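Hi U.,

Before I forget, here's the chain from the pilot set. I'm dumping it here mostly so it's searchable later in email.
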Amino acid sequence: MLSSLNLDTILVLLVVVAIAPVILIFFLKKEVHGKAASYFSGLMVACFVYSISNVFELSMTSVFSKLLMLKSMYIGAVSFAPLVLLFTLIYTEREKWITSRRLYLLAIVPIVNLLLVWTNDYHTYFYSSFELVERGDFMMMVTGKGFGYWLHQCYTLLLLFVSLYLLLVRIREVPPADYKQVFMVILGLCFPFLVYILYLTIQGPILIDFITFSFLGTGAFFYLGLTRYNLFKIAPIAYRTLFDNMQEGVLVSDTSGGLITLNLAAANMLELKTINQKLALKVIQKGWPEINELLTCAEEYRMVEFSCEKNEILNWYLVSKSSIKGQNRQVVGSIILVRDITQEKLFQFEIQRSREEAEEANRAKSEFLANMSHEIRTPLNGVIGFTELLSNTQLNGQQIKYANTALNSANALLDLINDILDLAKIESGKSETNIYQLDLYEFLETILDVLSFQAHKKGLELILDLDPRIGNLVEADELKLKQVLINLLNNALKFTNKGQVILKLTLLDSHKEGDKDKLKIRFSVIDSGIGIPKEKQELIFDAFSQADSSTTKKFGGTGLGLTISNKLLKLSNSSIQLKSELDKGSEFFFD
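Structure:
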């Protein structure tokens, strides 16, 4: 049939076949496909050189011109198999095998064969004879085969066989979902491999070299494997990083809950010796119900934390499921990440245990302080009582002085113990808020009556500034509010030598809540005393601290009053704030 074809028709067909693979080069993006694109381009150029030389050889009639084109064909022929092998090494992610030394060794036989072809006129080691045979419109060249020819054929078949073997091995390395990508390249390699074997077994002259047509199949399928399926773009990142190098176990499932693949870390967690999807699925169904539920559930994202006993040791795992979506945004499968969090859990339990021990120790300390303060107060009250009785008896001046000094010291010690007792009760959590109704006017009058003598004694004005919008009956914790206000007023009187101390109540906000009016009141204690420098204003709220160490000597006190007041207010979600200027007075307020 082919012999009856017109020469020009066959030549045009062969030119198209020769050019087609080269055109594919212009559709590649080298920055995306890297070295694979370079080897693919070189391979297509080699195919073009072989095929176009074959076209010229077929169109010529003299032995000399045909022989020249035959020699040109071997420039592409000797390059084809090495370039296929290099492309395959990149494709199967064995780039580390490509070294400079191995490239030189790979090129030795092609270079020797090329030298033998081009110098064949002097030794006939490649072709032993040449003869022209006429077949219809064609002048066919029949050659006798020498040593160099068979060396080239054996070397080519060996490299093609090694490339095919690497691709078959690759199938076992990739997930089943990627099988078709490897098969695509295997198909491209099978075309020249099978045609080459057929070419070597045919006797007599061949009208058309079918190897040129096999190159077309090689180019097309290699191109699809390189671009359409993006194996070179995805595999190095997704497969090697996620599956080979991750410490966490990775399971990949399809939409029906079947296990497609898993990495080595997941196999180790499941106590498998090899990566076997079917065996892994059986182990999960039998002993890992939490993971099995994620495999079968329809949720696109889910996270589960669970524990299981392994070798009589309780292990904790955190498992998360994320859906894999295709280009059309449809779910095509799921990735399940299994992370061993046993050490983190043990650390978390240790922190929790340490916190509970610290809280228990703090409660024990507070209870100890409360008990000790209570026990010390009992004999101290006896000391104060009998010292007062003693001071009321007939004593001389020196004895009265001693008795008053003892009484003042005992009272100071009692104040300190009372403050420590209050602080211990608050820190131990035994101080509770009791809200009930009280008469505000009577409440404020009681406080001012307690402190009026102290103010009068120092010649100070004690003023109440009450916002008239605040009603008489309010609901509050009377005892705690009284303790805080007396503490603030006491401090104001203590640190003010002249002028006035003002207790000011201001209505900030009011709204209806149910059948009651909800009021937000600001309590302010304003004095014209010594004031507090800015750098010391934070310090005074710390326990046992005062703005100046000389203050304790001059005015007395424990430095606990503001700390206790602040802690009491925190029980009602409030806190003391301060505005003060040195030598101009201070304003302590809370809402």
